[in-house]
Each structure stands twice: as structure tokens, then as C-alpha cells.
Write a structure and sequence with these properties.
The protein has 305 residues and is mainly α. It has twelve helices and no strands. Helix content is 85%, strand content 0%. α2 runs parallel beside α10 and α6 packs parallel to α9. The protein starts with a helix and ends with a helix. It catalyses: all-trans-beta-carotene + O2 = 2 all-trans-retinal.
Length: 305
């Protein structure tokens, strides 16, 4: 019980630090040119961004241990690698389908991370909230940076997407998030402060409108998703957060993290003379390693409920 209370207290502190860090990052977006933003974005994504999904195998093993199940580590590793390369293959063969699935998966994953500590129990309505909130954040990002988003999507699927798609997606996901939130609050299954959540959305809108597409995505992905996710994962594995537990997490994550970083750096090097195309491949590779991570985190959260 004390551990849970300490975690909740630390999470509130983390949230406050995140808000301050967000405004600081926004200030950087104002004073630096896009190229410097892009370099900083790649550094943060390749470090904290990749790291938050680099310990999935350990998390799976710990989840199985708690359920008194045993699986061969190398068998799990093989499945994981096949899943990643299968995702890359789908992006190559059917890029339109892969992109849609990536947005849907990422939307659910972002919403789950944001609300998992604020929900009482798993249910269809709560899953609906996770999905609609996360996709709303993504559509808010896309709509705020329409031209850059369209250029990246065109490099992935070969044709442009009309702005109306993003506007409709933003409207539907926003209204659906509102509906799910009201239902869950009335059922007392969601513990949030509505004004506070609206304040967060205003912050995201200002960030997405002010920063470049890549830097805006990075601010949300790192500060509002990856770092809180790292916090949850380390707490799940070690029961506390300190330098020792963080160091242990990094050590066990190192092999997969290195492989992912080398792969992404290789893509960036190949397409170094074409920023839009390099960004398209960058997000495609990021999507490929995101798919299995989303499933692992979902299983971890189910195990904790």
C-alpha cells in the first residue's frame, strides 16, 4: 500500500515537471531553427523514446512469472523479431494499411498510458476512451502541421491525404473522447479533473502549432508518454524508482535498444539528403517496433488490474 501511495505521489511530481519541461521545450522551438529542432528530436527519440520500448522481453518474462508461467527466452525473442520484421514487410507491401494500423495502435497506446492510473478497472468503455483520446491527440498533431504531415504520408503511401480527413478524424475522436469521459465519470470509473485535462489539451495544441511536426511529436512522445511509461515499467519490475533500478532497467534494455538505434541511424544515413523521405522511413521503422510494444504494455496493464 505504501508503495502505491509513493508511486502516486511521485507521479504527481512527475506531471508537474513534465508541464515545466514542455514549456521549456516550446521556448526552444521559438529560438532555434527547424534543423536544430530536428537534431534534438532525433536524439531524444533515439534515447528515451526507443528505451521505453526496449525492455519488452523482460516485462513479458516478469508478467509470466507473476502468472506462474514459463516460456523460453529465445523463443519469445524470435517471435518478437519476426513480429517487427513482419511489420516492416507490411509497410513495404501495403503501406496504406500499415499506416492506418500504426495510427490506431499508437492512439490506443497513448491513451492507455495517459489514463491507466486514472481508471478503476478494465472495461470496453475504458478501452474506448484510451483509443479515442490517443487518436484525438494524433489528429490534433496532424491537423496543426497539415502540410508537413501530408508530405510524410505521401512519401510512405504515394499519394496525398485531403485535409478534411484530419479534420473529420479530429472532430469524431474529440466528441467520442468527451462522450466516453462523461459516461465513465458518471459511473465513477474514471478519476480525473476535467479542467486539468482540458488544460493539458490546450498545452498540446499550443505546442503542436508552435513547433515543427517532428519537434511537436517529440515533446509529446518523450515528455508525456515515454518518460511516464519508463516510470511505470521500472516500478513494475523493481517496485521502486531510484538510480539503481533505472541503471538495471537500462542494462537489461541495452541489446534491443542498440539494435533499434543502429537500424534507425542506418535509415537516416541512407536518406540524409532527403529530409521528408528520411522522416517517412523513420516513422515507418518506429511504427514497426511500436506494434509489439503496444501488445506487451497492454498485457502488463491487464496483469496489474
Amino acid at each position: 500500500m505504501n508503495k502505491i501511495k509513493n508511486k502516486h505521489t511521485d507521479f504527481i511530481k512527475l506531471e508537474s515537471i513534465t508541464i515545466v519541461a514542455t514549456f521549456f521545450s516550446l521556448w526552444l522551438a521559438v529560438i532555434f531553427e527547424d534543423m536544430i529542432e530536428h537534431v534534438m528530436a532525433y536524439i531524444f527519440i533515439l534515447s528515451f523514446g526507443i528505451l521505453h520500448g526496449a525492455n519488452d522481453l523482460t516485462l513479458l518474462q516478469r508478467t509470466d512469472t507473476k502468472k506462474k508461467l514459463t516460456r523460453n527466452y529465445f523463443k519469445i525473442l524470435l517471435y518478437y523479431v519476426v513480429f517487427v520484421f513482419g511489420s516492416i514487410l507490411i509497410f513495404y507491401l501495403v503501406p496504406s494499411l500499415a499506416l492506418i494500423v500504426f495510427v490506431l495502435f499508437s492512439g490506443y497506446h497513448f491513451g492507455e498510458q495517459h489514463f491507466i492510473s486514472k481508471t478503476i478497472k478494465a472495461s470496453f468503455t475504458i478501452s474506448g476512451l484510451y483509443f479515442t483520446y490517443g487518436t484525438f491527440i494524433l489528429f490534433l498533431l496532424f491537423s496543426s502541421n497539415y502540410m508537413a504531415t501530408v508530405e510524410i504520408i505521401k512519401n510512405i503511401i504515394g499519394y496525398s491525404v485531403p485535409k478534411s480527413i484530419f479534420e473529420i478524424g479530429l472532430l469524431i475522436s474529440g466528441l467520442s473522447t468527451l462522450a466516453f469521459s462523461i459516461i465513465l465519470i458518471l459511473k465513477k470509473e474514471l478519476k480525473i479533473y476535467p479542467i486539468k485535462e482540458l488544460f493539458f489539451i490546450v498545452i498540446f495544441f499550443v505546442v503542436f502549432k508552435t513547433a515543427s511536426l517532428l519537434w511537436g511529436f517529440t515533446i509529446y512522445f518523450i515528455l508525456w508518454h515515454s518518460i511516464p511509461s519508463l516510470y511505470d515499467q521500472i516500478f513494475f519490475l523493481h517496485g521502486h524508482i531510484n538510480k539503481s533500478s533505472f541503471r538495471s532497467f537500462v542494462v537489461t534494455s541495452l541489446p534491443y535498444w542498440l539494435i533499434s538505434v543502429v537500424g534507425l541511424l542506418f535509415l537516416l544515413f541512407i536518406f540524409r539528403d532527403n529530409f521528408e523521405k528520411s522522416l517517412a522511413f523513420f516513422f515507418s521503422f518506429l511504427a514497426a517496433i511500436t506494434f509489439p510494444h503496444v501488445l506487451v504494455i497492454k498485457k502488463l496493464n491487464q496483469n496489474q488490474n
